[in-house]
Amino acid sequence: MVNQLKKMTKVLLMVLVVLVVAGGTYVGLNQWLKTPNFKTTQAKSIQQQAQKKIKKSVHLTAIGDSLTFGVGDATSSGGYVPLIKKEIELSDQTSLTTQNFGVSGDTSVQILKRIQKQKKVQAGLAAADLITMTVGANDLMHTIRNNISDIDLAKVNTASATYRKHLKQLLTAIRSENPKAPIVVASIYDPFYVFFPKLTALQQGMTKWNETTQSVLKTFDHTYYVDIDGVMTQPKGSVLATGKKNQTASNPFLYTTDHFHPNNRGYQAIANQLIKQIQSIKSTWLYEK
Prior knowledge:
This protein is α/β, with parallel strands linked by helices.
């Protein structure tokens, strides 16, 4: 009888120990499940994406020179700007309103003066969710236009330092009107390459100018550089001047009236490059905060 009681006591003790351990495990597990650590990074990301709400309307303000104005656009609707509008509305289920403040022939200084003096430009920039800009080509042309066939690269380098200062002032003025909207800036391109492919100094000047633009943009937040030189200078289908008889130099992306500005195909190529960048940063302009 005594032995049986001892055995029963041992069994009861073992059961009690098991219950205590199980209870402690349950409490610990329950607490762990309630902590944020239980949520994985992936789960958080999915939840955050689900919570994002697309803006019903987005405002694009375009500012710059003739490429923004749309010289060469046969539809006279504003070059690359309506093409961006069409693509964003199709792909992102939002309404895109646009304002185009492009003026043919404007240098960086002239664009800056318009921002400083024109209330409608200031208001357009302030309202923007997204800003695009073309700038720099006229600054360079003012430097080399008198002697394109014999470009002085030392003069180009000196002028690029001045352009750097003016571009900084321009971006500062835009930021004073709108501190947060992403600014997407296109490069310049060489429209003369198809006719004068051996003028390497011209290409070097263009490269220097684009490098200057990139270096300035890096000093500002939420500014993005887009290369259009690669698609406009030597587009697929162009026939380059080689000196052979009966061969006509042509660039199918250039406006035939001046062989300088883009035609409709050219503007589509430019828009495609800008759209790639714009879509890659949509978290900065598409969703409600």
